[in-house]
Amino acid sequence: MAITDRRIMAGHPDDDGFAATFDAQVVWRMRWACAVAGAFSLGFAVLDTYWLPPDVHAPVLRWRLGVLLPALLLGVALTFVPVLRRHLQWLGGSVVLVSGLALVTMIWTAHRAGVDYPYEGISLFLLLNYFLCGLRFGVATLTGTLIALAFVLAELQVGRHWAQMLQSVMFVLASNLAGIVGSYISER
């Protein structure tokens, strides 16, 4: 261990020992983050019944309960399999990516139908990705950026009014950039 510039260095982040120690310390964070995200998803499913028209609610609910929620719950379950813990970062990243893309699809479905569904859920999901799930900088940046880019492409494809689209795209891209910077600082 070396102390330089008021920082304590426990090893280089690319060392296998660092990765194993980091994963052992964050496995509980990944479990709880996915479980809490799943609980929030169920809460939002209830709210969707009030603010989405039935023809939009049905496909959004299928994505929420058929992809997003099962991916999160599967992520929790797989962290208990010892052989998979060696691949915890890629496991967690895959769970976040699948869930995030399901969320993008839900928003795209509503926006395509002309329903002003809250896009801020993507920014909340990016918080999960960068700060709550225990993902390291590289994996978190990859998954967060893919989710943010998928959202941008979905918004461009829908062709909403340019001011609405610009606001939502800029908000999500700024959230992603803040997550990247914060994740980098936290890991270093």
Oligomer: single chain
Instruction: List low-pLDDT spans.
Output: none
Please state the average pLDDT score: 88
End-to-end separation: 14 Å
Count of distinct structural domains: 1
Secondary-structure content class: mainly alpha
Q: Which percent bin holds the helix content? A: over 70%
- The best one-word shape is globular
How much of the sequence lies in strands comes to under 5%
Radius of gyration: 18 Å
Tags for this entry?
188 residues, mainly alpha, single chain, globular, two-stranded antiparallel ribbon
Word description of this protein:
With 188 residues, this protein is mainly α. The chain has one domain. It has helices at 16-51, 54-78, 88-112, 120-132, 137-158, 162-187, and strands at 2-4, 7-9. β1 and β2 (7-9) form a beta hairpin. α3 packs antiparallel against α4 and α3 (88-112) packs parallel to α5 (137-158). The radius of gyration is 18 Å and the shape is globular.
Short recap of the structure:
The protein is built from 6 helices and 2 strands. With 188 residues, it is mainly α.
Structural topology:
Blueprint: E1 2-4, E2 7-9, H1 16-51, H2 54-78, H3 88-112, H4 120-132, H5 137-158, H6 162-187
